Amino acid sequence: MTTLNFTYLPGDGIGPEVGDAAIAVLRAISDKFGHTLLPEFHLIGGAAIDAVGQPLPAETFESCERTGAILLGAVGGPKWDHLKGADRPELGSLLPLRKELNLYANIRPCAPFPALIDNAPLKRERLEGVDFVVMRELTGGIYFGQKGRDVNGAYDECRYSEAEIRRIAIKAFDLAATRKKKVTSVDKSNVLETSRLWRETVIDVATNYPDVELEHLLVDAMTMHMLTHAQDYDVILTENMFGDILTDEASVLCGSMGVIPSASLSDGKTGMYEPIHGSAPDIAGEGKANPIAMILSAAWMLRLSFGLDKEAALIEAAVEAALEQGQTTGDLGGTLTTAQVGDWIASHVSQ
Ligand code: NAD
Ligand code: IPM
Ligand code: MN
After folding, report:
1. Looking at ligand 1, which residue's alpha carbon is closest to its atom 4?
2. Would you say 321 and 270 are in contact if contact means Cβ atoms under 8 Å apart?
3. Whether the Cβ atoms of residue 165 and residue 198 lie closer than 8 Å to each other
4. 121-253 has the same fold as 1-102+272-351
5. 200 alpha carbon – ligand 1 mean position (Å)
6. How far apart, in whole angstroms, are the C-alpha atoms of residue 347 and residue 104?
7. 0.95 exceeded by the pTM?
8. ipTM
């Protein structure tokens, strides 16, 4: 029996909708295995701005730091788009949380569910057998450099230290060593100095992994290769902004933005788990959001933060069953609401 004490940050837009569905599934799994579910609900993002005037209240951060396991929906939306800099939900809550907790390794999988292959706009033969993971650097690069305005316009500085590149490269090689033994490092080394250091450092790290193949691709070419021969990839290692963009593209291979979870990890025990999608203001409040990315993120939290492999695998099997039986939301051609998908998966894990 485990006490599942984690920080639950539903956030904005569809965040609370997909969050409720994930909590229903976590409740079902806790009941089944005799665990105690102890989520600590806290405000973040626009919801926190509205309630207490700041995007990352001190008690929210304190809970995240103390529990070390965070399940987050999404932050941001049109209501807060007029805000600038750290007053914004994105720059004032999500980014500092990632930075302060040193969650530098963001893992985003792309392995299309067999039941969803025909939902993707690509031909079946381009999708069968696709199974890669993007290892996205999450606490450096252009997101965290000096930004501002001056008489000439605006600027966003992009910096990477060798140590920052080395530690994420090690994560990528360690992961590849347990998988198909290939790392594809994506950069823009024909133009950017940070990318030149990136490439040199990755080549150096690779010398410690003689069994893992290393290839380099430029990011513009990668956007094309991902659509034409995604089967070639195992672990795609890339910097912060390229990883953000490439993983939204990867979601197209998987049939929907609503099915890709993520884990953001540090060297210690702290982990944050969140879908790769955002707050989806275009469908928020309508019960249309697909909760599967959030439910899979919760499963990853069980596996990686609480060591509960069996429980995580049961949730993943229930998700697969839901997809095979068409128990899905509209983005996948189904007719169920967010809550109905959550309840279906919850009752499936209870069986
Ligand atoms: P988005 O990911 O919210 O939505 C992109 C498209 O995908 C929309 O058409 C949306 O309806 C659809 N979509 C997303 N999630 C879905 C789901 N679960 N089920 C079905 N369809 C889904 O990206 P956006 O519209 O560019 O951004 C909206 C807001 O979200 C912005 O304020 C942005 O900053 C924020 N955002 C937050 C996070 C985060 O908190 N981690 C991530 C991305 C974007
Ligand atoms: C994501 C989001 C965030 C990012 C935004 C909201 C800051 O797009 O998690 O993918 O760019 O990292
Ligand atoms: Mn993104």
Report:
1. 280
2. no
3. yes
4. yes
5. 34
6. 35
7. yes
8. 0.99
Fold that domain 121-253 belongs to in CATH: Isopropylmalate Dehydrogenase (3.40.718)
Identify the pLDDT of residue 194: 98
CA distance 297 to 22: 9
Check if 76 has its Cβ closer than 6 Å to any atom of ligand 2.
yes
User: Is 279 annotated for ligand binding?
Assistant: yes
Per-residue pLDDT band at 141 (split at 50, 70, 90): very high
pLDDT at residue 291 in the model: 98
- 41, containing H or E segment: strand 36-41
What pLDDT, in 10s, does the model give residues 8-37? 999 999 999 999 999 999 999 999 999 999
CB distance 331 to ligand 1 below 6 Å:
yes
Catalytic residue among 8, 12, 104, 143: 143
CATH 3.30.110.70 fits 1-102+272-351, yes or no: no
Sorting pLDDT into bands at 50, 70 and 90, what band is 229?
very high
Distance 76 CA to ligand 1 centre (A): 9
Q: Counting beta carbons within 10 angstroms of the beta carbon of residue 300, is it exposed (0 to 12), middle (13 to 18) or buried (19 or more)?
A: buried
Closest CA to 270 of 163, 134, 139: 139
Q: Is 77 annotated as belonging to a binding site?
A: yes
Locate the domains of the chain by residue range: 1-102+272-351, 121-253
**Mean pLDDT throughout 102-110?**
98
Banded model confidence at residue 308, pLDDT cuts 50, 70, 90: very high
Residue 278 CA, ligand 3 centroid: distance in Å? 7
87 is in an annotated binding site: yes
> For this structure, is 220 an active site residue?
yes
